Amino acid sequence: MWRFLAGFVLLVCAADASPIGGRTVPEFGKQYHVKGELSLPHSEIKEPFEAWYDFEGNQSRIDYRNGTVRTFLIGSDLEYGAIYKITPVLQIIKCFQLNGTKEDPIRPQAALPDLQGFEFEKMEYHAHVLCEVWKKVTQAGHKKNTYRLWVTRPEGNDSPATPQHFEMEGFNTLLESHNDKYTIDYSDFSPQTESDVFIPPLGMTCGEFPDPVEEHQILANPIQDYVSTSPVSHAHRLFGPFKEKFNRQYKSEKEHEERENYFIHSQRFVHSTNRAGLSFSVGINNFADWTKAEKARMRGVLPPRKKDDRN
Questions:
Q1: Residue 213: in which H helix or E strand, if any?
Q2: Which interval of the chain is the signal sequence (predicted)?
Q3: Dihedral angle of Cα 241, 242, 245, 247, to the nearest 10 degrees
Q4: Are the C-beta atoms of residues 227 and 166 closer than 8 Å to each other?
Q5: Which residue in 29, 134, 190, 216 has its CB near the most CB atoms, within 10 A?
Q6: d(CA 262, CA 197)
């Protein structure tokens, strides 16, 4: 029901709603299985995945697009661990391997965000389920990212949490605009898994990931950039090599920020499309930092006319 107090409108939750004070940061356990769907609104892409995580076993597995692409992160393999990726390349199934190093050993990849630094924000319904909302804000340069995770606690405040929804919304203070957003919807969460799911297929010879070297981390571990709360992702780090390769010179800091943003969206589109197992592949080219309108004009497509011009 609604109550009015000193000019403010308050929504009083139902009797079964948990109190908002004294909450502990959600934990998901040291092993779990979960399904999810990554949504990239800018590219109109929805990408399903399924993940298995075993912290104590030092291993994880994430399948993309209903098993079309499978990634295994095995920290106990070789000296510093290894990542194995089983993926179709022009519809031919291939295996690629990325070995860990002393400086960068392979660790299991979580499909859920690390909630260090998150704070309880509010209680809110998501998909008709009352959830705790946990929030974290990070900033680097002009990039200000707000992360929110919706969780439920089936057995009470101190019980293991169940993830429901994750959202990142990016705001660029120089451009004064919300220029980035993606979401992950979770389902079928279980705080347990089985060890045999972490065994890569036998009988396959794994080669090295193709060049450029800078893209190896994104190719081997796609979800890392999405669940990380670092405002500077692997995709952002690829903008420097792109500018050098295509001799980019921007006339202002504002244009640089805009072009970097278009480049990030192009990166996500390329890698997500290539995980679909299609009969073709796409790649980063000279137009990766162009707007949709600029690409349309290059193809000879005229932008839609304004309503006032349609006579």
A1: none
A2: 1-17
A3: -110
A4: yes
A5: 134
A6: 37
Amino acid identity, position 251: K
Tokens of 296: 């349309």
Angle at 281 (CA atoms; ends 264, 211), nearest 5 degrees: 70
Domains identified in the chain, total number: 2
Same domain as 87, residue 113: yes
CATH code (residue 286) = 1.10.287.2250
Average pLDDT over residues 2-7: 35
Q: Do 156 and 263 share a domain, yes or no?
A: no
Do residues 65 and 175 share a domain? yes
Query: How far apart (Å, rounded) are the C-alpha atoms in residues 141 and 29?
Result: 34
Walk across the sheet containing 82-89 and list its strands: 119-126, 129-140, 143-152, 162-172, 177-190, 31-40, 45-54, 59-64, 69-74, 82-89, 92-99, 206-208
Q: What is the pLDDT of residue 227?
A: 96
**Domain of 205: which CATH number?**
2.50.20.10
- For 184-212, write each residue's pLDDT tens digit: 999 999 999 998 999 998 889 999 998 88
By residue range, what is the domain housing residue 35? 29-227
